[in-house]
């Protein structure tokens, strides 16, 4: 049992585990101490000083986010002295902050704005000492606005401690301290993998996605363009919380209906190409198992992970699946398969994706993602951008009647839906790999061992393969790049010492929680919120009539994409359109050093 500590907060007794901080203990009794740099899932920095509290027997106030509780401690969270100190700190921050709240991307979601309102700060009474700092627009995914940065350190912590990418750091000292990239050359010229976790935890909108809303509206309103849209699995369980509905509720039908009403010409679903990915990736895994190919095979759906691999683990390029992500498979097929079936000139097609991920913007613009003969995906919108577009359209999301996506590239199974949660790609792959190896479906499709929010998960499966006898297959799942680093360091050591790894298949997702926790999801997404979204995906999976990718008739049936266009999983045409190659990248600047794998 954990030792507990008893203390008093505002004369209320509270008992909490030893090591709990004052700010966490206060929440147990419904007292929310004002914070700014603090974020519940991150190691506290104590950078801002907003959360100061008084402690009996201590002459100076202490920062509640970094001070652990002690037996018998008596804490006061609200006094004239504390209110004055907090307001004074806040006013100093605001004096050197670009206050353009109505037009700021974080308006209504900004912790600084909320605190200023709660503390009744009068901006007109503050001296402005704002230093004009240039925008960092070097990245294709993320824009950094130094004028809005308050040096709270959240982004530095998530980048360095959670993701272990090390693209952001504190620069200079004292009053000149700021957050910047190494060498101050911009995010686009750094080790940044575009995961966007910094944008999720930023309290002020100093970090945000590079918006493509205007370009998408322009395409929609152009009568000469045929605008096709796809939406990732995680989007359907995130929209509800943004429109006052039950968090984690799957709003698939409303999502499709809204897109049609907004003016998209064809509304499909990324879940279709998620099923397609499983057939390609499952075939790749089975072939490697049968022929003694390079193992473990590592999933390739997460572009943040792919760039991380290219930067920090290039020796695992041969282990990484050659399959494109579902977004890019869909994009390649829109301008080939869809264009052929609907008899549309690919020149007129504008391919739009709606993703929970800022790294998808980067992925869409990788030079090799043009196998259709065009840029496969033209524009990528994050969940945040999609929500803004819905509000801009004046559509009542809560009351709009549900509609279905178009069948050609909109049919999907439960296996595709769970792609959005950590462990979901692994579970979907296991369901179909079992079928490919045995010719039969699994009796129990729920692979509980790879579900949940534990950083690294493992499972061992026994598959009665027809040609290979009883196969014992060990798999692993990691979410968050820090966990990916730990897992790959372990695998690297195993291979060095024994010549092989204990794992046959590994799923890696760049973002904590998987795509439900992507860098394009709503600001302030906590692990608890990500878990709720994941639960919504598993619920939809459970309720769908088809739960295995190979059951999707528009993928594997007589009217499906293989029968009508690609031939079979792993075919030459499938490799031409749906597979890719990787490059080694410079650790400091992210630039390509050399090609690691050739396109098959």
- Spans of at least 5 consecutive residues with low confidence: none
The strand order across the widest sheet is 2-1-5-3-4
Number of strands: 19
What is the CATH topology classification name of the largest domain?
Answer: Rossmann fold
What best-fitting shape do the alpha-carbon axes yield?
Answer: globular
Q: Rg from C-alpha positions?
A: 25 Å
How is the main sheet built? 5 strands, mixed
- Number of discrete domains: 3
| Main CATH class of the largest domain | Alpha Beta
Strand percentage lies at 5-15%
CA-CA gap between termini: 55 Å
Total helical elements: 20
Mean pLDDT: 95
Structural class: alpha/beta
> What's the CATH architecture name of the largest domain?
3-Layer(aba) Sandwich
Give the fraction of residues assigned to helices: 25-40%
Describe the structure.
The protein is of the alpha/beta class and 600 residues long. The chain has three domains: 4-78, Ubiquitin-like (UB roll) (Roll), CATH 3.10.20.740; 99-209, Alpha-Beta Plaits; 214-595, Rossmann fold. Helix content is 34%, strand content 15%. It has 20 helices and 19 strands. Strands 2-1-5-3-4 form a five-stranded mixed β-sheet, sandwiched between helices. Strands 11-10-13-14 form a four-stranded parallel β-sheet, with helices on both faces. A hairpin with a 6-residue loop joins β3 (52-55) and β4 (62-63). α9 packs across α11 and α9 (270-291) crosses α15. The protein is globular, with a radius of gyration of 25 Å. The termini are far apart. 51% of the residues are buried.
């Amino acid at each position: 049992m954990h030792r507990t500590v008893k203390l008093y907060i505002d004369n209320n007794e509270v008992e909490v585990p030893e090591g709990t901080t004052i700010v966490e203990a206060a929440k147990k009794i419904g007292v929310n101490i004002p914070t700014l740099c603090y974020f519940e899932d991150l190691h506290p920095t104590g950078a801002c000083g907003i959360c100061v509290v008084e402690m009996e027997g201590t002459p100076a106030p202490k920062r509640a986010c970094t001070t652990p509780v002690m037996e018998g401690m008596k804490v006061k969270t609200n006094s004239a002295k504390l209110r004055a100190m907090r307001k004074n700190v806040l006013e100093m921050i605001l004096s050197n902050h670009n206050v353009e709240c109505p037009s700021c991307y974080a308006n209504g979601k900004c912790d600084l704005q909320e605190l200023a309102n709660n503390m009744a700060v009068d901006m007109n009474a503050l001296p402005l000492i704002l230093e004009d700092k240039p925008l960092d627009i070097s990245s294709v995914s993320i824009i950094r606005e130094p004028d809005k940065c308050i040096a709270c350190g959240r982004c530095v912590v998530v980048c360095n401690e959670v993701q272990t990418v090390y693209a952001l750091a504190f620069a200079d000292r004292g009053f000149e301290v700021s957050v910047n990239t190494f060498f101050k050359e911009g995010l686009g010229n750094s080790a940044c993998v575009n995961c966007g976790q910094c944008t999720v935890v930023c309290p002020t909108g100093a970090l945000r996605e590079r918006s493509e809303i205007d370009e998408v509206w322009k395409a929609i309103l152009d009568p000469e363009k045929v605008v096709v849209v796809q939406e990732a699995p995680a989007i359907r369980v995130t929209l509800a919380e943004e429109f006052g509905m039950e968090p984690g509720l799957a709003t698939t039908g409303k999502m499709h209906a809204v897109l049609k009403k907004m003016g998209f010409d064809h509304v499909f679903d990324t879940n279709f190409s998620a099923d397609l990915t499983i057939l390609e990736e499952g075939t790749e895994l089975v072939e490697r198992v049968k022929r003694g190919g390079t193992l473990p095979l590592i999933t390739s759906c997460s572009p943040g992970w792919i760039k991380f691999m290219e930067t920090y683990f290039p020796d695992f390029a041969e282990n990484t699946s050659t399959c494109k992500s579902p977004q890019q498979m869909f994009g390649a097929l829109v301008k080939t398969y869809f264009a052929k079936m609907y008899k549309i000139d690919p020149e007129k097609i504008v391919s739009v994706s709606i993703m929970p991920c800022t790294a998808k913007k980067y992925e869409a613009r990788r030079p090799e993602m043009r196998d259709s003969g065009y840029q496969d995906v033209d524009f990528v919108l994050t969940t945040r951008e999609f929500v803004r577009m819905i509000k801009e359209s004046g559509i009542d999301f809560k009351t709009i009647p549900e509609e279905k996506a178009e069948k050609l590239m909109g049919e999907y199974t439960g296996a595709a839906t769970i792609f959005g949660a950590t462990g979901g790609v692994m579970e979907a792959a296991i369901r179909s790999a079992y079928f490919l190896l045995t010719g039969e479906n699994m009796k129990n499709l729920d692979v509980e061992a790879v579900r949940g929010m534990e950083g690294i998960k493992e499972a061992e499966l026994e598959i009665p393969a027809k040609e290979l006898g009883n196969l014992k297959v060990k798999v692993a799942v990691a979410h968050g790049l820090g966990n990916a680093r730990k897992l790959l360091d372990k695998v690297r050591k195993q291979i060095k010492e024994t010549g092989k790894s204990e794992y046959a298949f590994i799923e890696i997702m760049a973002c904590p929680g998987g795509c439900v926790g992507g860098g394009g999801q709503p600001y302030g997404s906590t692990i608890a919120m990500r878990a709720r979204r994941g639960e919504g995906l598993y619920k939809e999976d459970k309720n769908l009539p088809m739960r295995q990718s190979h059951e999707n008739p528009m993928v594997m049936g007589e009217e499906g994409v293989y029968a009508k266009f690609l031939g079979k999983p792993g075919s030459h045409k499938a490799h031409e359109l749906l597979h890719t190659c990787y490059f080694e990248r410079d650790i400091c600047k992210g630039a390509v050093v050399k090609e690691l794998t050739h396109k098959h």
